[in-house]
Amino acid sequence: MAILTDTKARSIKPEDKPLAHGGVTGLTLHPSTAKGRGKWVFRYVSPLTKKRRNAGLGTYPEITIADAARDAQAMREQLANNLDPLNN
Fold it and tell me: Which domains, and CATH codes, for the chain?
């Protein structure tokens, strides 16, 4: 899967489906109520409770694609160490 580009993210419309980042599993950009804006969501399964969780990483374009990917990757590393990122 291709990594989300800034051009594609800026063209997101409120009626669009969430856009996958493509480089970090579970990271998506959910459309907001205005064109070219969205909410970053990192979705994962907690190693503690085995339940699916959603971590909000901020809004686009205030949080860039690179920043969201960096934050989600750091959370992936915590998950690899059996830590729930939202409990730390």
Answer: 6-87 (3.30.160.390)
- Of 40, 79, 70, whose CA–CA distance to 56 is shortest? 40
Q: How far is CA 68 from CA 30, 50, 53, 63, in A?
A: 13, 24, 17, 6
- Give me the half-sphere count of Cα atoms (radius 13 Å) on the Cβ side of residue 79: 22
Q: Are 59 and 67 in contact (CB under 8 A)?
A: no
Band the pLDDT of 1: cuts 50, 70, 90: low
Question: 88: number of CA atoms within 13 Å, CB side?
Answer: 14
Beta bridge partners of 81: none
- What does the DSSP 8-state code read for residue 33? S
**Could you tell me the pTM of the whole model?**
0.94
